[in-house]
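Table S4 entry, peptidoglycan glycosyltransferase.
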Amino acid sequence: MKQEAVGLFEKIFIIWFRDLTSWIWEEGNVVRKTAIALFVLGGVNVFLLTGSLKDFFRLKEASMYDIPSILYAQTEKGKFEPIAEYYKFSRIPVDIDILKKEKPSLSQDNRNKVIQCFLSTEDNQFYSHSGIDLKGIARAFVVNLIAGKVKEGASTITQQVARLKFLSVERSIARKAREAWLAFLLEMAYPKDKILEVYLNEIPLGHGTIGVGAASRFYFRKELHDVTWGEAAILASLTTRPTQFSPLTNPISSINKVRVVFKKLIENGRMTVTDAEKEYTALMDYYSNLNRSPNDSAFSDRLNRFPYVTEYIRKNLLRSIGKDRLYNGGLKIYSTIQIKHQTEAEKAMFPALQAQTLESNQRAFRNIDAFDDNFGAAYEVIADLYDLPEFKFKISRTERTFRSAFQEDIRDTFTTLNYLTGDDSLGDFLDNNYANQSTQDHLLPVEGSLISIRPNTGYITALVGGSGFRSDNQQIRPFQAFRQPGSAFKPVLYAAAMDYSGKNPDPEKNVTPATLFADSPLQYLMEDGDEWAPENYSSEYSGFILLRKALEQSKNSVAVRVLEQIGLSNIMSTLQGLLQLPGRDIPYNFSVSLGSFEITPYELTRAYAALASGGKTVNPISVLYVENQEGKIIKDFRNEFDESDRKQVISPEAAFLVTSMMEDVIREGTGKAALSYGLSRKAYGKTGTTNNFRDAWFVGYTPELVTSVWFGYDVGTISLGRGMTGGRLAAPVWGRFMARSLDNEPKAEFSWTTDLKITKRAVCTMSGKLPGGQCRELIEEYFIPSTVPKDVCSDHGSQWMSTETSSSVRQEKPKQTTVVAKPPGTEKIPKPIKKKKKKSVFSGDEDIDY
């Protein structure tokens, strides 16, 4: 049985078709009614193919542009200033109303010269047709038929706007039909001037420019309202094939096309022949002075003051905002970057990296004769078969060998000898040779990293990712370079150890700044049978040494013994909490104490930021918030983390102790070079150098800022050169950056030091124990109360002397007190206290030679 239609559309269509059939076959002119019905059906068909009800709702999009997004950074006064633009194509929207009219006018049309040029070449009847120029279509059909090819287009400016805004560039009848339909709708929805404005802002004009505003700035380095008639003609000549007619790519083709534009202006009565010739001749100066690369693009002209920062933030925003919105949404992105900090970071890093490239002198490719030696004979045969050019060097092998030997060995020897002889001519020659030496072609660049973070907020204020952001050097090394931290890891290890001792006191195993360790050679037999013998950098050993002094002098053997004494399993979770390495494990062996595992500069800086925050983790961010074109915040990164997300990994007391120890590293130890640029505020940090001088580090902080500096080659096996330590390379750069970036900022104190429970006791500098009667040199040291040493020093004099004076030692033993410690740096650890010598029966016998 036949089923009745159930769909609403089907029912309506069936009823409508029945009524139409009845109307046709009723009395009357059947042929005429049939023709009318077919015409209506045809019109409905055309509408369904070319139009859509959605088109009516899309018309408002025609006046909306894809606007570049702007990245802002903070000035010293706290105001935001643009530092970069994000876009795929350069567009500078132009309001047609601000384009001034031409005075005196050359014709009845006194519109701006740019408008007249585009109207003459693209659609002279624009202001008289209704979106579709039927006369133009007929004319183009005849011209193309006679020429036997497509020589003239028939699209009006309105049709081009429809295609640019809503359609593809596909050549088909269906696309042209939709183009005409949409042009008709645009004419109904917008005035002529608005349609022309959209066209001028949407037309691609080559080299990554969209619209006349961006093209004017790219081609002529001027704003649109300042262009001449000739320059306006160049813009109008680029509408069909921008690449072919670009003055940068094909200046001859461009000149010829511009001549056509002037002819159109003359034909349409907008210019006289005399005026056209005058403007055309004046334009030739532009071509004769044109000295730009054909590959130049507007993308390279975009605002981009700090490329490493721009690229890092771009990658992050792509994940959270999306490509379309970032490049075309006209967003305002407010970053945490401080312009002064970033400027000083680049001033400190770039010259230092360039100088170190010369100093390290590592060639990118040394055996340049390898091809000639191994394949030279075969190349001759291949060249004869395939008619290849002759393979040869610009200079001979002998000359290349001499130049290499001279630059690497002989020249330095000559320079040394010249210092002794003082020959002026030889000195001038050597100086000139040094100055003119090309380093980029044959020397591997030393790369580096600098990243700076506010410890109280996590705001990233400066970021340098290498020796210079180029097409072949775009790695953001603070986040992408996995390197061994070396001794720069020791403060993290010691903080974890002292924190564990404070929570689990054991007089035999406590680790404090005054704990005595043996600084002597070590040797371990590994499970695979290999031997591991960690050594101090200097290969010298000091015997027994206090932990504070061991960190100051960066003693490797002591770091291993600290880990051995405290137990890696006891502090592993603390180390993981400080470093925050999700999905990565810290190796479970003693070499961890020497920073043998790989982390990024960002991860190590973040761990130091936790120390500078009193043991609380820090969640760094680089963008504060993002606004749309209307000024509404669409993404607020400040809300991503709050105080509850910060975990207390170690106690504030442990953070205080390691901070005070790092002050000595800068004041007296391996980091003294950090003060070479006049850093006037208390600072705390640690150097780091890895095996064979492959990496040079300095990481440190003040209450205001945490910063790390790293030097090294991208290939991790290449040495920077003997003696290239963190103290020599990274510390001065760190000091220069910190001194100059903070010079106008008020000095601050650590906010977390107000309620510390720290005990301050005098201890013997030889043993780290409570002073005995014979202890002559004492030092006041900080302790977590539960780790204060209980033993009295008996390392001076004989045992009977210790026994004889033990009662007096007990009587003089000071009462243990818990004090509120001042921030590190505000109260200096005093120099060793020399006690008065007690007179005894042996007084005066010090000179006896035993």
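Confidence is low (pLDDT under 50) at residues 1-6, 798-820, 826-850.
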